[in-house]
Amino acid sequence: EAQVTQNPRYLITVTGKKLTVTCSQNMNHEYMSWYRQDPGLGLRQIYYSMNVEVTDKGDVPEGYKVSRKEKRNFPLILESPSPNQTSLYFCASGDRGYEQYFGPGTRLTVT
Amino acid sequence: DAKTTQPTSMDCAEGRAANLPCNHSTISGNEYVYWYRQIHSQGPQYIIHGLKNNETNEMASLIITEDRKSSTLILPHATLRDTAVYYCIVVYQGGSEKLVFGKGTKLTVNP
Predict the structure, then answer these.
(1) Do A104 and B34 touch (CB under 8 A)?
(2) Which chain B residues are Cβ-neighbours of A104 within 8 angstroms?
(3) How far is CA B85 from CA A31, A39, A42, B16, B63, in A?
(4) N vs C: which end of chain A shows fewer Cβ within 10 Å?
């Protein structure tokens, strides 16, 4: 089954404790991206990757890192999480422009 | 600078057609109209897209006016599972592949 998977789905952590949210797709897509969704602000892009070893900033990249060492994986790294990074995170992938597949989401709470 | 305008909310009776309008009066000739939906905190789901011709797939139909300044997404026989926020997005094909989600239309399908 074609899908985008994210782990963990739920995470509660404390300020400053490094964490990684994994994203994996099995569709051989070149394009992958990360979004965060907050009430009243909608979905905003954090980072995206057009292909392996190619990443670029989206609209809200501060406080996040990403890497794209393999085509299928695109982890989101929070080196020192802060409470303002409490959000719902979505990973997406695509191979034909804007027809993209989204993961189920990761709900992160930073206390 | 929002490229699209959608009603905040709409209601539809189960089994009837749901017609969701979108205004994109400033659309340019090489921009496409994409529709996504998000069912309560799940990842957004691609529905359909078009340039100027009407389009139909297994999920929905997309009707674009001749002047391309507006479009309508049609769910022919709405079910309770179609209750979601529907997003109309205008994109430049060949751009960064970033999806800019506005506030969308909250469609509630009633039994």
Answers:
(1) no
(2) 42-43
(3) 24, 13, 11, 18, 19
(4) N
